[in-house]
Sequence to fold (64 residues):
Amino acid sequence: MAINGESFEASLEKLKEMSEKIKSPETDLEGSIRCYEEGMKYYKNCEKILADAKQKIETFELEQ
Fold:
């Protein structure tokens, strides 16, 4: 299901945190790049969880 056991909600929250850090004037370029890379991992995790949920719903609908 989730990568590294992270739930959708936890991954989304981490993604928001990374976004805020990138926007912060205190974050330098290197920090922004690290946050971007980490944020992309959380984004992909959210995307995978949503795709799995969509597949389950479509399968359920076909069975009805």
In short: The two ends are 24 Å apart (CA to CA). The mean pLDDT is 93. Helices lie at 8-23, 29-63.
